[in-house]
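Weekly sync notes, structure subgroup
Attendees: PM, AL, DS (notes)

Item 1: joint prediction request from the bench team. They want all two components modeled as one assembly rather than separately. Inputs as received:
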Amino acid sequence: MAAKSKKLCLGRTIGVYLSNDRISITEAGLTFKGPGLLGQHSFNIDQLNPLGSLADTLKDYVKKVSKNTPLCLGLRPEQTFFITAGAEYEQQEDVRDKLLEAVGFHSAEERNDIVADYFKINKSKSLSGQFWSISVCKKKLVDELYAAFAQAGFKNVQLKPTPWCISVFSAKLPKHLKHWKVFIQVFLNDSGGLAILVIDRNPVYFKRFSFSPTTSVEEIESAVRSIMIQCIVIFRKSAVDGIIVQGPDAEKIGSRLAGETGLEVEAGNEVGFTDSLCSGSLAMSAKSKKDPQFDLFREVRPKPGILQMFPWKMAAFVVFLSGCLGLMLWQKASDLNLTLKNLKQQNSMHTWAENKQTADIAKDKKPLLAETQAIEKFLKSKIVWSDYLRDLPTRLPPNVSLSDLWAVCEFEEIGVKKMEGGTTQKKKLLSLRGITLFEKGKAAPEAIESFLESLRKVELLQRDFPQVQLAEIKWRREGNSETAMFTVLAMPKKSAEGKPAQDEKSANSESEG
Amino acid sequence: MELMDKTKMLKYKTLALKHLGNPMKLRLFTIGALLAAAVALIYMPLSDKINLTKQQIAAEKDRISSISEYEKLQKQVEAFHGLIGDQSDTNEWIQYILDGLRKFQVKLRGMESKQEKKVGPYKAAVLSMEVEGPYPELKKFVEWIESSQRILRVDMLQFKQEPKSLLMKIMILGILPKK
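Output from the run, pasted for the record:
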């Protein structure tokens, strides 16, 4: 199961700690259980040729992992130390020399003999002023180490100060001590230990010490006091919140240390300053996004060429996206081509139009359109009078007879220019003249009214001549009887200009004529 | 001249290498160059082709629409021609009306051919008639005109009761074939 989870892990990193006589290698990665250590190996090295031994061990190890796996190397604290200096420099070219001068490398020869890496501490509220963390190692050693790794085939290698990595990646502040801003971490082993000053989670200074746990804690106390003095000298901080002790007999030593220093001491159960802790911390730091970080190989690493720096993955992604876009466009172009082909095929079925341009067809269409429109208008504007001739006699009351019927629906000519200053007036009218008898004792015959009422209900009239009105009644005596001659006019709806009024005048004159 | 060119080239090369040595600038340059290449080599040619095809499709659709409309109109016109008659003079048309009139128990009292009216590309013959007869026969005559196989319309109709008979004045319009 452990082997399986090792194979399935993501983001594999390697930490290598090179102590006096052993190489400790730790693999870390993200498994389905979460981020953690995958395995640890320890190898003895030839003390006469430690770098040769390291190269041989790595050559064997590189067969098990990818050469691109991020690897972080750490040396003994005495070999790669780090320190923090207060200096108001901005990032510029000679900042390296100024910083090294500030931490004791006064001559150019000394400065050329070492490799240094540095960064500005930005995230610290407790520190007033500008502070830089500087890590230093002998140039010759760094060159040899880099060559050994290059020989082994590892491409992604960093060299970091081990105490800094332990403090950042392996020592966690207990929850109840989160309020501690300035504190000292003490990592112990059987023969000595490491004390690190931490300000706002930034490891800023460390001191190595050796001691025998059976005798006393004087060496530890001395290291702690030395760090407290540095805290005052460098950082102007007189108050240290407490001490965290990790390692064998941490509780016992912690209580004695509390008595001696008068500081609050927290004893942890975690491992002390061991090779496995060192390589584990280095493995965790190898792919950490925490920025900034030390890398002492930075100065010796040859500057990458454009080909090495070229963002192949991103370029491949852009090419892939472009390819997808191209495919989509090509697909669309193919679909449109198919549609065009179908349309052309449809058009080719009309053989008479094969040799004709679309504009010519449109031109030929115009006279046909004029013909159909003219006939349509001729027929649509007519009134079917036979319907009226069938319907109107049935509406007559018994004592009324029609003497005259006059129906007009003039056709308005199409294609004739209209007279200047007006429109040609189209006549549309239905005039009915009838006769009825006067009933004795009545002022006017009721039959006329009932005739009018029945006319208004005729659907045909409602459609063509909705305006039905009585135009005139004339009284006449014939012998003993009195008759009434009346005229009913039916007209279309009145327009705004009052067109039917003219029809009415003409109707009277025409019917009388 | 050549030496100057070489110096200039070297200067530009150094400048380019200096800028491309910055990973961020190299990334931006790579994205820009690849996108420019994609636009120039993929998007533009295909986009032009698509636009051209779209224009051709629009033209073909327009042609199809024109053709089908033309064919539809032609069918309508052919149908009209069957209802108009063969000869373009008024005499044939008057003869047709008189033949129709003879089918009914009515008497022609007068007839007058009036000025033709313009109906777009066609002309309409105008015939004014006075016909005497009983109301049902006159009504049948009007019905025959309005349901005739020719394109006709009645523009004016007048019934007048005379002492001994019923007189109907009628004005008929009929489409004549084109000359």
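Discussion: The CA atoms of residues 85 and 177 of chain B lie 6 Å apart.
Action: AL to compare against the crosslinking data before next sync.
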